[in-house]
Amino acid sequence: MVFGLKHQLHIKAVWLSDEKVCWINTLKLPFEEEIVCSDDVDRVVDAIVKMEIRGAPALGVAAALTVYAYANRVSKDVRDRVSFLNIVDESIDKLWNTRPTARNLFWSLNRMRRVLRNSIENGFSIEETVSKLREEALNILNEDIEANVKIGEFGAELVPDGATILTHCNAGALATAGYGTALGVIRAAWYSGKRIRVIATETRPVLQGARLTVWELMKEGIPVTLVTDNTVGLLFRKGLIDLVIVGADRITREGYVVNKIGTFMIATIANRFNKPFYVAAPTSTIDLNSTINDIVIEERSGDEVRKIGDKLITLSNVKVLNYAFDITDPDLVTAIVTEKGVVYKPFSENLARIVNR
Fold it and tell me: pTM for this structure?
């Protein structure tokens, strides 16, 4: 490994404590580090919808932990096995309907649902079912951390010493169970001794770059400069960026990358100036069953654009179109860094090969 384990979990987004799912409320960052813990599925659903918890891997981990925590809570009061199983199954449905784009959410919930179905088929007791749900949820959490560390190791090899890296949105520890995908690559490069610098976009309208990425990097002493989203083109023209590393919420089997709105524009500019554009994501983000025609792009509240925080910055009744994600074409992507290795074109062949490895 290129760094010590002490660097692995400086920051956690979601975890299990006292049999409750806990998370750092990213809406309060960078000014307040509020920790919330709950075993109430409706509270977690609200946290996901409002983006207290955000980032595709973090959503998957949080959902799995919530299914377990809620099942454990329900098991104390509901002693009828069929009723218990139905209640837990309904909790999976609630979590399923929170955010439509992030692949990891559905991947994780499918795993938890398989555990539940297996319990039904094998006649496991309520206690046995709860135990198996706990085991699977913790497996999902630990697998995410391990994947992020490996992504960091593979990705760090692509980063030249002295490079300036552009990243968009937040694909760090706060978007995962810990360590991060795009920021995992940056962390691994930094801890290996490479003299890197990071340029972070503010990432309108929710400002994940300004609030979260900057907070993470400054907390660990990694040099970072914040820029407005519309500065990116000039930075490339002035030769101030050597490569781009971003995360992903979904990657189709053809290699289309769904990520935070604005990613496609950055990839297009990077291609224009012949700079590498890397995507860092676990294989759980790769959806071999979907094509570009299957992608659902989430539309969010217009108030995210009308306001910064609680303050209006435009007329309160102006019409707003607020897409949360966009789609980057495969030809604009230099490579996709996964926990199983770096994937190059043709993605339609090589993504399937690495997922099934």
Answer: 0.92
